[in-house]
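Fold tokens
===========
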Amino acid sequence: MLWVGLLALAAVVINLRVTGAPWETPAKAASALAVWAALFAASAAITVISMAAKARRAGQPFWSPVLRKALWALAAPMALGALMTAALLLRSMPALLPVAWLGGYGAALTSAGVVSVSPVRWMGISFLALALLALLLPAAAGLALLATGFGGLHIIFGGYIFWRHDG
């Protein structure tokens, strides 16, 4: 989670300095969205590699019943986040992307947290709170909220989980 958080902060910096936010600069929206797509792919790869390493250290199989349950719990909210992203882009409402991304991810973590350590649930609830803020605040706050969630919350909760729960 620590690396995912750092990569998310890098994505925000790239949006701020190079592409603009996906909802601010229509001419560069595809480039801005590509930054977030790359972050998602890199985050998924880092997570799988980290989980495999932890399973190996613990002498457990990677594809365990708990992992399967967690993936089922993650899948529907993440799919909904993807559908909401597509809907918002098709309807020319990209300013609401932070709501969809933070909310979908928050719902996924809250659901998957049922079969994981409790900080995962609390992280999910924190993402849902940020989604609410993204709905209530002006669109200009979107990148700051994405940085707080995908950057800050991953670093904070990732550090805590690493410290208290061996990664």
User: Anything to note?
Assistant: The mean pLDDT is 92. DSSP finds six helices and no strands in the chain.
